[in-house]
Amino acid sequence: MKPALKSTPALRITLVCNTAWAIYTYRQGLIRMLVGRGVDVTVLAPRDRTFELLTAMGCRCIELPVASKGTNPRDDLRTLYTLYRRYRAIRPHVVFHYTIKPNIYGSIAAKLAGVQSVAVTTGLGYVFIQRSRAALVAKKLYRFAFRFPREIWFLNRDDQTAFVEQNLLVHPERARLLHGEGVDLEQFGFTPLPERAEFKFVLIGRLLWDKGVGEYVEAARQLRQRYPQARFQLLGPVGVDNPSAITRDEVAAWEREGIIDYLGEAHDVRPFIADADCVVLPSYREGVPRTLMEASAMGRPIVTTDVPGCREVVAHGVNGLLCEARSAESLAAALAGMLDMSGAERRAMAERGRQKVAQEFDERVVVETYKDLVQKMTGVLL
């Protein structure tokens, strides 16, 4: 006979990430559900402007030192020790770790503190793109740390396969595929494409070389004389804590050249998606990119790379076009293909994109997955 589920407001859940911005941007649906059911939600992350926004949502935010760029073992040990102390003080029932260093050092700290944890690989990114000693060390650390979480979630099948094939999972039976972290279909409602002579492309996200920003700029150079009606926009933070970060000075140089319109950064990307004719993400590797899910939900055709994560969202010729990664020429050809399409063809893509996201990436399904696991791990009914 199964034990009766408890119903209590005392449940404590902690979310740990290398940026508070990512918790706020990608997990609002999860936070709303947890806070709405009386859960004590703590966010551990480096302090940024979203601390206040998360606090307003009902979270407790605690600053966490994470050297995302660094490979200094002392910095990483400090992160591990800080997490251990925090877990001992908070005594969370479940910790969810996101991004590489929280996944590695948080999983170890949770084990040492006697706390249950779940690792969510939000995209293998820098470690699996680069071939370096640091990448080799990171993979060994992954293999050690990932023996401890109750479950390990992957956002796309390619990432899960990479971990299995490289023998990085001591307990492969704990791996679970989660198709992205979902999108709020009401918040990102379908919006008709603009009707105008001008055509706007926008790339939304942290401005990193690994996001294909350099290829996007070069493709814009190649196309601007042939398509004078085309505008190429960038939206997102510059100079972020990442080895692949692009500086504000580099963006300013592109602006002076007249290639790029830099829109700054925004908490709410919906007005920028609505004003675009096509959303672009020429990334080298992703988890399942939230930007593309949001763009498709709002009915925007997409141009993106045929790489893990991106191809989960875009079916070539259905709701967008795929191109080769690290190739400005291939990207330029795809952007030109989008410009050469008729309005009717782009509108059909827009409608198919909305349908695909509604069928495969509804945030409510993802939130239910979290609820079910928390219930299984704690015996508490949410």
From TrEMBL:
Database matches in InterPro entries: Glyco_trans_4-like_N
Gene Ontology MF terms: glycosyltransferase activity
A family per Pfam: Glyco_trans_1_4
Residue span(s) of domain Glycosyltransferase subfamily 4-like N-terminal: 13-153
Gene3D superfamilies membership: Glycogen Phosphorylase B
SUPFAM superfamilies given in the database record: UDP-Glycosyltransferase/glycogen phosphorylase (SSF53756)
Protein name: Glycosyltransferase involved in cell wall biosynthesis
Source organism per UniProt: Paraburkholderia caledonica
Taxonomic lineage: Bacteria, Pseudomonadati, Pseudomonadota, Betaproteobacteria, Burkholderiales
